[in-house]
Amino acid sequence: xxxxxxxxxxxxxxxxxxxxxxxxxxxxxxxxxxxxxxxxxxxxxxxxxxxxxxxxxxxxxxxxxxxxxxxxxxxxxxxxxxxxxxxxxxxxxxxxxxxxxxxxxxxxxxxxxxxxxxxxxxxxxxxxxxxxxxxxxxxxxxxxxxxxxxxxxxxxxxxxxxxxxxxxxxxxxx
Length: 174
Known about the structure:
It is a single chain. By secondary structure, the protein is an all-alpha fold. It folds into two domains: 111 residues; 61 residues, no CATH class. Helix 2 packs antiparallel against helix 3. The radius of gyration is 43 Å and the shape is rod-shaped. It starts with a helix and ends with a helix.
């Protein structure tokens, strides 16, 4: 989009360059003067030149007015395009945010789908968090095996003990 705007601005700059247009008219006028001088007498050439000069001046004024209108129209067009692009970017950002939120909800739901909460589990006799975690995993495996659920110890991703805060702090959250 920026490249298109730069191209339009460069094209407008070339078209709107009044000096460029004046130089073009002066070159044409110079060529016409040479042609007329070779075909007509000085009096006829002066009259023709005066007529051509006034015609060129009128045309130059018209071109300058048209250039002003073109500048105005291009400015309005650029503003309109930028507004529409801005609106589209906002819609895309909003859709991306919505998609991120939905994906986060799905991931959270997926992470929680296989949770098992066990009440009144036997306490581990271990004194550190690592041994406590191993004991809790073994306890969960034995409990599920007793319920005739086929499970391997590797299937259990994480065991979190919820309980007495004093015990948790002394065992580093086992």
